[in-house]
Amino acid sequence: MNNYKISQENKNKLLSQITNLFKEEANLKQALRQQGENNRSEQEQIFLELLEVFDTLESLLGFLEDRPEPDERVWKRLPKSLKTVQTKLLSILEKRQVLKIELSADQPDFTICQVVEREIRQDLAEQTITKIVRQGFTIEDKLLRPMEVITSKQE
User: Fold this and answer.
1) How much is the pTM?
2) Is the pLDDT of residue 141 over 70?
3) What 3-state DSSP class applies to 9?
4) Which domain covers residue 23, as residue numbers?
5) What are the b/e assignments for 45-64, b being 16+ CB within 10 Å?
6) Is 112 part of a structural domain of the chain?
């Protein structure tokens, strides 16, 4: 069996390095715990915001259920109420850098658009967007979901 001798100076260096590694491990564990708590807090926040949207929809549905034959005023207010819910949802998404795609032209940009249907329209140029079927979104600079569109065709 080999007996290795380590100088006192090397022992001290080794003990110092081991101590530093234990400190670093403790700091990393603390940072990981903190990150987990932050993630839970962020999740709770988004859930609370989504529950506000749920409450609004529940209230709106309850209002409509209580009126089997809603009058004209109710029907006139319905789009505004739904727009409020949509605005709230977009606000929740925007806080998390999820942004609605805004088109700058009538022609689809195939990096962010997906054509799901074509319709014959003699009055429009080929490949003109006639309808947005499903809104697209980006997160930071990455495409989260493409915009689904209907485009024109001549025949």
Assistant:
1) 0.69
2) yes
3) helix
4) 8-96
5) eeeebeeebeebeeebeeee
6) yes
